[in-house]
């Protein structure tokens, strides 16, 4: 059982995380100098249509004193069954609950239905500036596929910095 003090800390953390997500969308959607690159980043989020996420990366959205109101309640209930409290943090679930291992535009349909697993995904639909793109790609898989291929091609041309100039992380959450 958690103490009231722990719940207060978690709630504060969630508020900070929501602010950070809003700031991220502001940067991705509105910066004119890097708009072309940022558009690529929005497109690359769709890579989450295939893959897994550890329960600990989204547990704050499905439980605690203030679950994320942007998440579909039945999806949140399903996730609570898959990731109950005190589960091994290495347990993971599919990022796309509908088509599991297919690379398709279902990711965007999931966002429309409040089924974005990570807050960084769902914010693309909850923010009115990026919602039109989500809606368009949910309706048109051909347009989505073309946009994703273009984004991956651009990403492949980015020069990777190594040694003293950069850091290729073994774990994306931690500097080497």
Walk me through what this model shows.
There is one protein chain. The chain has a domain at 34-156: Orthogonal Bundle (Peroxidase, domain 2), CATH 1.10.420. Helices cover 52% and strands 3% of the residues. It has 8 helices and 2 strands. Disulfide bonds join 55-83. Its main location: secreted.
Brief account:
The protein is built from eight helices and two strands, in the order H-H-E-H-H-E-H-H-H-H.
Question: What order do the helices and strands come in, and which of them pair?
Answer:
Blueprint: H1 4-30, H2 35-44, E1 52-54, H3 59-62, H4 73-82, E2 92-94, H5 106-112, H6 119-126, H7 131-139, H8 141-156
Antiparallel strand pairs: 1-2
Helix pairs in contact: 1-2, 1-6, 2-8, 5-7, 7-8
Query: Which structural class best describes the helix and strand composition?
Result: mainly alpha
CATH architecture of the domain at 34-156: Orthogonal Bundle
CATH superfamily membership of the domain at 34-156: Peroxidase, domain 2
Rg over CA atoms, rounded to whole Å, is: 17 Å
CATH topology assignment of the domain at 34-156: Peroxidase, domain 2
Helix content: 40-55%
Return the CATH class of the domain at 34-156.
Mainly Alpha
């Amino acid at each position: 059982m958690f103490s009231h003090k722990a719940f207060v800390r978690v709630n504060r953390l969630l508020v900070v995380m929501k602010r950070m997500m809003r700031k991220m969308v502001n940067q991705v959607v509105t910066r004119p100098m890097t708009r072309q690159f940022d558009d690529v980043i929005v497109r690359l989020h769709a890579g989450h249509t295939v893959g897994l996420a550890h329960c600990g990366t989204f547990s704050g959205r499905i439980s605690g004193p203030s679950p994320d109101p942007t998440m579909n309640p039945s999806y949140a209930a399903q996730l609570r069954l898959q990731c109950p409290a005190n589960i091994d943090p290495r347990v993971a679930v599919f990022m796309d609950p509908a088509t599991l291992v297919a690379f398709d535009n279902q990711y965007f349909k999931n966002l429309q239905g409040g089924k974005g697993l990570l807050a960084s995904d769902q914010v693309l639909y909850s923010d009115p500036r990026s919602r039109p793109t989500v809606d368009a790609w949910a309706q048109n898989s051909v347009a989505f596929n073309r946009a994703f291929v273009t984004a991956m091609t651009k990403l492949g041309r980015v020069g990777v910095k190594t040694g003293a100039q950069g850091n290729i992380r073994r774990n994306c959450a931690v500097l080497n």
